[in-house]
Structure formats: structure tokens, C-alpha cells
């Protein structure tokens, strides 16, 4: 249970597809390695392991294939030492990291001549138990396993192709900002892509009301996969989530928007800078602000009415006295 919770937390903090699993005592850097290579290449790389604990720790090295585990970008480790996982070679099977020390772990990627063009993916793991024990499902080995991701693009007939599978708002009518967007991008190519860009929001008169960045962290979409990116248009992120009437009034006032809006999605991806576009419309009607403003107007009108009535009576009374 501890391992599953731990892996989930790390997956949610992913940069690209993953920030590798790490305990509070040991860290691995970089969290993700992206490389370009060709058939027959030998690429030498390394990762750094930092041991923050008070004792030396011995780690066993292994590589494992990973795939997209869902539309949120979390990885799913297949347990297979196939494809890129078999191309990764280590000079030793294990390494001991002294307490408080940082050790560089070298490795090589030997690309075979039969390697297909496009993306190939694997995770490098350091475990306190031998790979055989990890494959057998040892709780100790899984709980203490740390690693990093390796994404390799092999030259050749690269197909960089994507489409917007969905661009929508979570609601058609919002009471206030934030206005939340759902963006789902499908990778139809054979290599990982980083669609990045902006959403431009325009009001009912066509003026730009706001801009929202999409995928600022550079999350990857793997081939034949869909990845969901969340974005929100908000003016004051600190004034959200209110439950009381006056809390909602404050939220609507500080994140004020009113009327119909259009949102244009513009994404750029691939080495050639291909673009993806989509559009959606929505409305913002701040009911609590409207109610309060109407109440204020009614009170002002009532006060003016009675004030005028009282003033007229005073004038008439004064006129009557003057006439007498």
C-alpha cells in the first residue's frame, strides 16, 4: 500500500511523463532524459544518485519498458526488458552510494541496426533488491525503487502528427471565474510530442479578455495515445472555492466576468512547428453579484422615492406656511 501511494504521488508531480520515484532519503537526477539517435549509434549517458541517509545503500541497476498509463500522463511500467530496455547497458550490476554522497552512474544505449524509427521508451531503476526479486514482486524492492525515464527518438521515417481530440469547458455557464478547460490531444505519429501553446479568450465584443498557457511544463504525448491537459482562466486564484453567499459574492467580484466569451486554442508541436487549433464558447453570469447589485439599486430607488416624497411634503408645508 505504501508503495502504491508513493508511486501515485510521484506520478502526479511528473515533468513530461514522469518525475521518477524517489524516497525522502535518495534522489535521482535528471528525472527524465530525452535523446536523438540513429541506427547503430552508441550513446553514453549518466545519472546522478544522491544518498541523504546516514548509512551507505547498495542499489541494483535495471531497465524496464514503460507506456502511458492514462490520459493524465502517468507512466505504466510493463515489467518487460524489451526494445529500449535491452539497448541500455550498465558497466556494473550494482552500485553502493555512501551516506551523504552523490554518485554518478554511467550507462550506454547501444542502438541496434534493426531499430525502428520513432520513439522508444524505458525507465532506468535502482533498487535495493536484485532485479529478479523486483520482478517477483518483492515489497521491499518495490518500496525502495527509484529511477528516471529515458525517451529516445530514432532517426528515419519520423511521423509527427497529432489532432485535438477534445477542447471544451467543464460547464457551459459559469457563475464566476475560473473557467476550466478540457484539452485532449491525440498523437497519431510514431514519436512523442510536446504540444504547447495558449488559449485566447475574447469577450462578446471581440476584445481579448485573457490568455491561458497550455502545457507549460512540456508534457509528452506518446505515440497512439491521448493525453489530457487542464487549463483555467482566472483573475485572482486566491479567491476561489467559496461556499457561503458572501464568499461567493467576493469570489465573483474579484474574478469578475460577464456575458458570452469565445476561447481559441492554439498549440504548436513537432520539429516543423505544426499547429493545432480549436474553439469553444461559454458564458459567465455572476448571479451573486447581480443579486447584490440589484438589491443595492432597489434600496437606492426606494430611498430616493421616500426622500422625494418627504421633500415634496416639506416643500408643500413650507409653501403653505409662506402663503398664510
Structural summary, described in words:
The protein has three domains: 153 residues, Immunoglobulin-like; 124 residues, Immunoglobulin-like (Sandwich), CATH 2.60.40.10; 34 residues. Helices cover 22% and strands 41% of the residues. Strands 2, 4, 5, 7, 9 and 10 form a six-stranded mixed β-sheet that branches. Strand 4 and strand 5 form a beta hairpin.
Helix-strand sequence: HEEEEEHEEEEHHEEEEEEEHEEH
Spatial gap, N to C terminus: 97 Å
Unreliable parts: 1-24, 137-143
- Total domain count: 3
Give the class-level CATH name of the largest domain: Mainly Beta
The CATH topology of the largest domain: Immunoglobulin-like
What would you give as the CATH superfamily of the largest domain? Immunoglobulins
DSSP strand tally = 18
Characteristic key phrases:
alpha+beta, Immunoglobulin-like, 22% helix, 41% strand
Please specify the SSE layout and strand pairing.
Blueprint: H1 2-12, E1 26-29, E2 32-37, E3 42-51, E4 57-68, E5 75-77, H2 84-87, E6 88-89, E7 94-97, E8 102-110, E9 118-127, H3 131-135, H4 139-143, E10 146-154, E11 162-169, E12 173-174, E13 179-187, E14 196-202, E15 208-214, E16 226-233, H5 245-254, E17 259-269, E18 274-284, H6 287-323
Parallel strand pairs: 2-10, 12-18
Antiparallel strand pairs: 1-3, 3-8, 4-5, 4-7, 4-9, 6-8, 9-10, 11-13, 13-16, 14-15, 14-17, 17-18
Give a concise summary.
This protein has about 325 residues and is α+β, with helices and mostly antiparallel strands. It contains six helices and 18 strands. The protein folds into three domains: about 1-155, Immunoglobulin-like, CATH 2.60.40; about 160-285, Immunoglobulins (Immunoglobulin-like, Sandwich); about 290-324.
Amino acid at each position: 500500500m505504501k508503495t502504491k501511494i508513493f508511486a501515485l504521488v510521484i506520478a502526479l508531480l511528473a515533468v513530461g511523463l514522469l518525475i521518477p520515484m524517489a524516497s525522502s532519503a535518495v534522489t535521482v537526477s535528471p528525472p527524465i532524459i530525452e535523446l536523438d539517435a540513429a541506427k547503430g549509434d552508441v550513446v553514453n549517458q549518466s545519472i546522478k544518485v544522491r544518498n541523504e541517509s546516514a548509512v551507505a545503500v547498495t542499489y541494483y541497476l535495471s531497465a524496464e519498458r514503460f507506456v502511458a498509463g492514462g490520459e493524465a500522463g502517468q507512466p505504466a511500467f510493463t515489467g518487460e526488458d524489451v526494445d529500449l530496455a535491452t539497448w541500455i547497458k550498465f558497466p556494473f550490476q550494482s552500485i553502493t552510494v555512501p551516506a551523504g554522497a552523490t554518485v554518478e552512474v554511467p550507462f550506454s544505449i547501444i542502438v541496434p541496426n534493426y531499430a525502428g524509427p520513432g520513439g522508444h521508451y524505458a525507465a532506468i531503476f535502482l533498487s535495493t533488491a536484485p532485479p529478479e526479486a523486483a520482478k517477483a514482486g518483492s515489497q521491499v524492492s518495490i518500496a525502495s525503487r527509484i529511477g528516471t525515464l529515458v525517451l529516445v527518438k530514432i532517426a528515419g521515417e519520423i511521423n509527427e502528427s497529432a489532432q485535438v481530440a477534445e477542447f471544451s469547458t467543464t460547464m457551459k455557464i459559469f457563475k464566476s471565474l475560473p473557467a476550466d478547460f478540457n484539452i485532449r490531444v491525440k498523437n497519431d505519429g510514431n514519436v512523442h510530442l510536446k504540444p504547447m501553446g495558449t488559449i485566447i479568450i475574447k469577450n462578446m465584443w471581440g476584445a481579448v479578455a485573457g490568455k491561458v498557457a497550455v502545457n507549460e511544463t512540456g508534457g509528452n504525448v506518446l505515440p497512439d495515445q491521448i493525453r489530457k491537459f487542464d487549463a483555467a482562466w482566472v483573475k485572482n486564484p486566491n479567491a476561489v472555492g467559496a461556499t457561503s453567499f458572501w464568499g461567493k459574492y467576493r469570489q465573483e467580484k474579484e474574478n469578475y466576468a460577464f456575458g458570452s466569451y469565445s476561447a481559441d486554442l492554439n498549440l504548436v508541436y513537432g520539429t516543423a512547428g505544426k499547429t493545432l487549433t480549436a474553439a469553444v464558447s461559454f458564458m459567465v453570469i455572476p448571479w451573486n453579484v447581480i443579486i447584490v447589485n440589484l438589491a443595492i439599486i432597489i434600496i437606492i430607488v426606494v430611498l430616493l422615492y421616500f426622500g422625494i416624497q418627504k421633500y415634496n411634503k416639506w416643500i408643500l408645508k413650507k409653501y403653505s406656511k409662506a402663503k398664510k
